Amino acid sequence: MQIIHPLADMTRWSNEVIASGKTLALVPTMGYFHAGHLSLMRLAGRLADHVVVSLFVNSLQFGPREDLSGYPRDLERDARIAENERVDMLFVPTHEEMYSADFNSRVRVDGITDTLCGKQRPNHFEGVTTVVAKLFNIIKPHCAVFGQKDFQQLSVIRKMVSELNWDIEIFAHPIVREDDGLAMSSRNAYLSSEERGKALCLYNAIQHAKARFADGVCDTGQLKSEIRDIISANSGVSIDYISVVDKDTLSDKEVIDSQSVLALAIKVGGTRLIDNCFMGNDSEVSN
Ligand code: AMP
């Protein structure tokens, strides 16, 4: 595995791969790898001849009071971990090269970014789509892999790719969880052991919702109120949102059906955690 920092070197390498007739899969990340990231890398390895993993803590997608400066970073550790996977290139651009001092361009997807995390984190998705657009143009992958964990992000990226006519296939990887069900996240590193225990209420809420839906409960108001009770039973945990939305349009659903997604965001102490599930059968790898 090689590590590349300069944008021009990354593009040169990609151009050579493409000119040789080989295919390229990209896995965009902010690093501090966990098993979720590794699963995405493995899927990418099955989809293309070469795998590029980008590692960039993207300042544009953090709000002014968010955790940009404290976001966990450890390039040496990440490089060691990625080395054991079938990753050809770890692309680690510098902030200065990605965003020059007078950088003033943005890629924005309207509509589906107004709901869920977009409501709580203004400009977040604009930061995501801008960096992903730059990565697509620098690397020119044939396909890219994103996690279902960031369900809204995946929808936004798919819409951007379709509406801007990028010939890049987007693949989704299901949520990878710890043994007890907590969705893996780099931000789990912030949790104290007590908070780690409380964070499980997210998964408990999801399990409860799926069981209730299987029993025939499809009233969103009813289910939301039950989920609120499960989460609120934990002191120090606050709810950002509990939403049931259509899996494609992300519009609110009053009646739950198999096309619905339950999306949750909570704060455990100072740590914001998200999780979601399809109310129908969880799709396996999809594109
Ligand atoms: P991040 O480094 O947190 O920006 O995540 C990079 C990619 O990994 C994104 O596409 C995430 O959706 C995905 N990802 C993060 N955590 C998980 C997880 N637990 N399961 C599946 N994908 C994940």
Helix proportion of residues, in percent?
25-40%
Q: Unreliable segments (pLDDT under 50, ≥5 consecutive)?
A: none
**CATH topology label of the largest domain:** Rossmann fold
Main sheet specs: 6 strands, parallel
**Could you tell me the mean pLDDT?**
96
What is the CATH class of the largest domain? Alpha Beta
Cα distance spanning the termini: 27 Å
Strand content: 15-25%
**How do the SSEs run, as a string of H and E?**
EHEHEHEHHHEHEHHHEEE
Strand order of the largest sheet: 1-4-3-2-5-6
Fold blueprint:
Layout: E1 2-4, H1 7-19, E2 24-29, H2 35-47, E3 50-55, H3 75-83, E4 89-91, H4 95-98, H5 117-120, H6 124-139, E5 143-147, H7 151-163, E6 169-173, H8 193-199, H9 201-214, H10 220-232, E7 237-246, E8 260-268, E9 271-278
Parallel strand pairs: 1-4, 2-3, 2-5, 3-4, 5-6
Antiparallel strand pairs: 7-8, 8-9
Helix pairs in contact: 6-7, 9-10
The site of adenosine monophosphate has 16 residues, from helix 2 and strand 5.
Care to give the gist of this entry?
The protein has 287 residues and is of the alpha/beta class. Helix content is 37%, strand content 19%.
What are the main properties of this structure?
Pantoate--beta-alanine Ligase, Chain: A,domain 2, single chain, globular, Rossmann fold, binds adenosine monophosphate, 19% strand, 287 residues
Describe the structure in your own words:
The mean pLDDT is 96. It is built from 10 helices and 9 strands. Strands 1-4-3-2-5-6 form a 6-stranded parallel beta sheet, with helices on both faces. α6 packs across α7 (151-163) and α9 runs antiparallel to α10. It is globular and about 55 Å long. The protein is α/β, with parallel strands linked by helices and 287 residues long. The protein starts with a strand and ends in a 9-residue tail after the last strand. It is 37% helix and 19% strand. The protein has helices at 7-19, 35-47, 75-83, 95-98, 117-120, 124-139, 151-163, 193-199, 201-214, 220-232; strands at residues 2-4, 24-29, 50-55, 89-91, 143-147, 169-173, 237-246, 260-268, 271-278. It has 2 domains: 2-173, Rossmann fold (3-Layer(aba) Sandwich); 186-278, Pantoate-beta-alanine ligase, C-terminal domain (Pantoate--beta-alanine Ligase, Chain: A,domain 2), CATH 3.30.1300.10. Adenosine monophosphate (AMP) binds at residues 29-30, 36-37, 40, 146-147, 149-150, 173, 175-176, 183-186.
